[in-house]
Design brief:
Distance between the termini: 39 Å
CATH topology of the largest domain: Methyltransferase, Cobalt-precorrin-4 Transmethylase, Domain 2
Structural class: alpha/beta
Largest sheet: 5 strands, parallel
CATH class of the largest domain: Alpha Beta
Bound molecules: S-adenosylmethionine
CATH superfamily of the largest domain: Tetrapyrrole methylase, C-terminal domain
């Protein structure tokens, strides 16, 4: 059995009762950084567990090792460093292979940064488009340009994506430039969600360059772009 377990994105209090129960009873935990997950288990007083590291570039040998255990009847939990496994995190390869090989799976849902950001944004979120991290080179410019026309039929959708501290200023500046003919369009930047310095910076495309320079360059970021004024929310 493979349990896919979401863990907090910064605030230990967001761990769920089911996550604790599953991490307590499983035989081992597939994780990204064994130090991060070891620390989580320690903070939750869950004692020692076998931690099996798995990341984007883990080789076939590691995957085969994990699936041998699962086929031998082990109950493994899949977690990532923070949030929901598979959401801009490794895990997809494990879950898709489990599905293909008929390994029973269950999900233990919990925090994901983009959902927390959207729900606190004040933007219309019945429809949204999650883009993960924007590409660094190939396709980046075209994707950002496409935000100008982004629609879902006659309705609008909010765009949401992740950004790192190293690129936040550059990305916001590029968006301000690409969408400058839509100056009233709202932009919300969520920083350090669920942590001590959580903040929502609310601005518009017109004010974005200034905000890009001013925003505190620390921590983790989610960027959201609201609808063009010409479109109605659903
Ligand atoms: N699996 C995670 C999830 O469910 O949200 C996402 C992991 S991804 C590797 C890390 C990115 O998520 C960060 O660079 C940041 O953009 C976003 N993120 C994670 N935690 C965050 C937080 N507490 N506040 C704001 N953004 C966060």
């Amino acid at each position: 059995m493979l349990s896919i377990v979401s863990t907090p994105i910064g605030n230990l209090g967001d761990i769920t009762l089911r996550a604790i129960a599953t991490l307590t009873k499983c035989d081992g935990v597939i994780c990204e950084d064994t130090r991060v997950t070891g620390n989580l288990l320690k903070q939750l007083n869950l004692g020692k567990k076998e931690l099996i590291s798995f990341h984007g570039n883990s080789d076939e040998g590691k995957t085969a090792f994990i699936f041998r255990k699962l086929k031998d009847g082990a109950h493994l939990a899949l977690v990532t460093d923070a949030g929901t496994p598979g959401i801009s995190d490794p895990g997809f390869a494990i879950v898709s292979r489990a599905a293909a090989e008929g390994i029973p799976t269950e999900v233990i849902p919990g925090p994901a940064a983009f959902l927390a950001a959207l729900s606190g944004s004040g933007l219309p979120i019945n429809r949204f488009m999650y883009l993960g991290f924007l590409p660094l080179k190939k396709g980046r410019r075209a994707l950002i340009e496409s935000f100008r026309e982004d629609t879902d039929g006659e309705f609008s959708r909010t765009i949401v994506f992740y950004e790192s501290v190293h690129r936040i200023e550059r990305t916001l500046t590029e968006i301000a430039e690409a969408l400058k003919d839509q100056p009233a369009r709202p932009v919300v930047i969520a920083r350090e969600l669920t942590k001590v310095h959580e903040e929502f910076v609310r601005t518009t495309i017109g004010g974005l360059k200034e905000e890009a320079a001013r925003i505190v360059k620390k921590g983790e970021f989610v960027v959201m772009i609201g609808r063009p004024a010409t479109l109605k929310p659903l």
